[in-house]
Description:
This protein is α+β, with helices and mostly antiparallel strands. The chain has 2 domains: 8-153, Nucleoside diphosphate kinase-like domain (Alpha-Beta Plaits, 2-Layer Sandwich); 160-364, no CATH class. It is 63% helix and 9% strand. It contains 14 helices and 6 strands. Strands 2-3-1-6 form a 4-stranded antiparallel sheet, with helices on both faces. A hairpin with a 5-residue loop joins strand 4 and strand 5. Helix 2 (47-55) packs antiparallel against helix 5 (127-136) and helix 6 (155-193) packs antiparallel against helix 14 (327-364).
Amino acid sequence: xxxxxxxxxxxxxxxxxxxxxxxxxxxxxxxxxxxxxxxxxxxxxxxxxxxxxxxxxxxxxxxxxxxxxxxxxxxxxxxxxxxxxxxxxxxxxxxxxxxxxxxxxxxxxxxxxxxxxxxxxxxxxxxxxxxxxxxxxxxxxxxxxxxxxxxxxxxxxxxxxxxxxxxxxxxxxxxxxxxxxxxxxxxxxxxxxxxxxxxxxxxxxxxxxxxxxxxxxxxxxxxxxxxxxxxxxxxxxxxxxxxxxxxxxxxxxxxxxxxxxxxxxxxxxxxxxxxxxxxxxxxxxxxxxxxxxxxxxxxxxxxxxxxxxxxxxxxxxxxxxxxxxxxxxxxxxxxxxxxxxxxxxxxxxxxxxxxxxxxxxxxxxxxxx
Length: 369
């Protein structure tokens, strides 16, 4: 740490803590060299605005609440110099990394323990904070202090982090929305353009096959590229390919003029099961890595829709009990539509996971086989 930098700081004892003022002044005088001590009066009507200017960030609700708790009467300011500062790095509530004086920091905490409240005693803990707050207190005022934002060296990093959070939240909302619209568009085309009623060989079924097969290919690519997690990726690839075979069973039977899809399903399952068993030790770690993905809940929702919800809606008795005409055809339509939405959600997760996984593999450049 830089021992030669300025070591001037200030303590503020708000009016709600006036009863502890003698004890606080005594403790400050013993610990530091007192440069000056003076009282400040802010007009009550501008107190919250002056707090915003003093601290250097705007949030009128916060400052109105703080003004109520710390009091709006005269308050004492004590400017001190630490002759033996101990510099250390701390992170504030906004994520800024600051070089603070541990001696000041420790004494402020002791004052808050003394008063039993965290908002009636303040101290600056960095050189930049001291300069900003002394400038805000430099002269008595009858109007609001001109607001000046407190500037930190890592403000750009903090703002970039906030942008990433908001963009992530936006994508978490937009991705499922766009996915549902795409699935709905396929259902609409089947019903009103192709007029197939979501029967066998319809666009909805082909879309489900394409999404599940593509997801299987992506999981296979992940399994091939990196040994770590290979067992888990092989397991998920088997799941997606089995779902693809399930959607293509009608065409497999037509092509081979026989009931062959169960054999294809078995062959795929056995092949990937062999890989999973061979790399059993990577199954748990791989699934744990997948679960860290922000979009993993989409996969969980997709598989739930596919395995449970669509099967319930696919029973004609459910719709018959609700008085739906032609419940047999409607149940098939409901089952296929919900399945497609499930496939779409799982594909979105598979694609995002593959991109993240491949980037990580490329950066590390290790264990690639």
